[in-house]
Amino acid sequence: MTSVRNLCLEHTFLTHEDVGLIEELSRQLQAFADVSQSDVFIDCPLMDNSSAIVVAQSQPATSPSLYRTSVVGQYAYAQNEPAVMYCLLSGKPVNGARGISQEQRVIQQNVVPIFSPSGNVIGALIMEQDLSEKLAQERHVERLQETTEHLSETLLNVAMSESGMPALMQEGMVLFDAKETVTYINPQARSLLGALAQDEFKEGCSVQQLFGGELKRPSIMGESGHYQEELHAGGVIFELKAVTLYRDDQVIGGVMLIRDMTDLKLKEKQLIIKSAVIKEIHHRVKNNLQNVSSLLRLQMRRSKQDEVKKVFQDSINRMTSIAILHEMLASDGLDTVPFQEVMERIAKHIVSASAKPEQQIRLAIHGDALTLPSECAGTLALVLNELVQNCVTHAFRDRSVGNIDIALQVSGQMARLTIMDDGVGMDTGSGEDSLGKPHLGLHITKTLVQENLGGVLLVESDDTGTSIRLTFPLAQTADREELL
Predict the structure, then answer these.
(1) What are the Histidine kinase domain coordinates in residue numbering (predicted)?
(2) Does residue 87 sit in the same domain as residue 193?
């Protein structure tokens, strides 16, 4: 078996001192595996930082292992183990992430970065546990919930057919016979009906008398066997639901449930008002951004310098991307948006606005559905704008045909956005294009990803094109939204 040192020196950028630290830690793996009852690994990043290699592995002696054979020397890819690559690139630990092992099993990973004395991430310590039992339990709970719902429905039908009267109910309950004469009123119903200031709270009165003749229908036992009404009386809003009871195909009476909906309706009204206000705010923000974009467009047309026109167009595209987001927020009235639709609209706009008339740039947008809070979606909208703008402006600068592929992938609590083109490439070390000009859009993107999303950005480029991947945790974006 290839030694830890040979694997590190052959496949990674680690120094001899770094390799010594990895070797020393690998000697402790068996103890870690036995104590945690987990398979434990050390992964080190490859030279291009696009994936990692397993340099050490220990199987627990205190519990069954997840692996039939050794995986030392095999690669760990971001699409299967996003938590590992995120840890290696960001230097942050990840707990409870799900991934796919080299033997194609669903696993749960706890990943901790390994640092060199200089503070660089030189590897990741990984503890893996089998999720098959947990997944089976989750499926069992889902089936149990479905069974419970069917059982509850069956018991309710049996209880009603036998005129059973639950003693503990939050709703008011009224039983009546075939002539709609009240035979029973539970304490909750008496308390709720007190708001009507009626005196007919005794058994023997009719259902209509119970509600002071305010019911819309003269009889609540229709052909359908169901009755539902929202009654406004005495400043109170009641929800009335009644079903007819049968025995041997003969009507024997019915049961009515009464619920006070006043507070709920008031809250619904307040939510509707707030939703309308939020929609109007987003609509006005969108209109204001469009107005500013129009003014900048007029200024751009007056300029005769191509560099100035480009600056104007970049600013217009950024504002348009945010305007698209606010338009969707205004349409739904919610504070979350489906980001795949945002990606499609922004990318198509950038290509349409920035490509030269003679250019044919094809877009391919695919991936997983992901709903994001407005703040996170706004950050990603700007990031997408800058990256697609870079593709159109720099990658296909001297070409008439080009392809841009945009993919969004979600794995557990990690998300990854990938933008690929088949253009001329750029210098990934200096962040400059082939003409030596710095990419302002790439600098903006890195800042947004690191500071707003807590994510990492990886750029790979050669003369066949450029691939930019940003990985960020979904849990952190949700936490940031809750703090606002």
Answers:
(1) 280-476
(2) no
Instruction: Give 332 or 174, the one with higher predicted confidence.
Output: 174
From 216, 233, 260, give the residue that closes a domain.
260
Question: In which residue are the tokens 């990854």 written?
Answer: 416
- What one-character DSSP code corresponds to residue 392? I
Least confident of 249-253, 338-342, 363-367: 249-253
CATH number of 446's domain: 3.30.565.10
Show the domain range for 37.
Answer: 4-132
Total domain count, the chain: 3
Q: Are residues 355 and 444 in the same domain?
A: yes
In the numeric block, which tokens belong to residue 78?
Answer: 């971001």
Q: Are residues 224 and 243 in the same domain?
A: yes
> Are 371 and 329 in the same domain?
yes
Record the tokens describing residue 257, joined without a space. 């449930």
Put simply, whether the predicted model's pTM sits higher than 0.90 gets the answer: no
Give the contacts of 204 (CB within 8 A, at least 6 positions apart): 181, 182
Tokens for 432?
């400059």
Same domain, 33 and 101: yes
CATH number of the domain bearing residue 34: 3.30.450.280
395-437 per-position pLDDT tens digit? 887 788 889 999 999 988 899 999 999 888 876 554 444 444 4
Query: Which pairs from 437-444 meet CB under 8 Å and 24+ separation?
Result: 439/390, 439/394, 441/314, 441/386, 441/387, 441/389, 441/390, 442/386, 442/387, 442/390, 442/468, 444/382, 444/386
- Give the alpha-carbon dihedral of 210, 216, 217, 219, to 10 degrees: -10
**Closest Cα partner for 187 from 211, 206, 166?**
166
pLDDT of residue 479: 52
